[in-house]
Here is the input.
Amino acid sequence: MKPEEKIKKFGGTTTVGLLCSDGAVLASDSRATAGYLVASKEAQKILKVTDRIAVTVAGAVGDAEKLVELLAAEAGLYRSMNGREIGVLQLAQVASLVLNSQVLFPYIVNLLMGGYDSRPRLVFIDLDGTVVEERMTSTGSGSPIAYGVLERGYREGMRTEEALRLAVEAIRAAMKRDIATGNEVQAAVITSEGVRFLTPEEIKKLA
Here is the structure.
């Protein structure tokens, strides 16, 4: 096994983000790989950053964890200095600056950032610092399969309840055809009330 293949990765993965009229929905699988090895069946790929912002991660596990820790620290600093929560686009720009400043020795990570400030937002952040606001998107090796489901079922203005079912369906489709996507489905919904992670029982009911 090559040295780079020994690194535990979320690169072989599928994550989904959907923008809704009342919030944002994030979903992913739970498999982490190291080359041809399934290194973890319970990898957490949806991470809470603030009370109303969460991200999905794809890429190297260590890079993803450290970047999310940095974003959470920056959000906490902003809150303590300004007396209010940081906006989604503001936090996305922080991530962009960090990633772009390290372009020669990059964080190997892509983020989907879902959140709620003045309204629901969904942002894709690439490893070079590119920031793009999205309505419907997917990352990872299983994303071409997930897009087949999302393109058919997504529409602007849909509610989070309906979008959750679509996101879970997209992840499950990727799990059937992408060998690096698998094990369990994870999902979270972000509204004006905050970030809520679905329980395994709730996800099973959506299948």
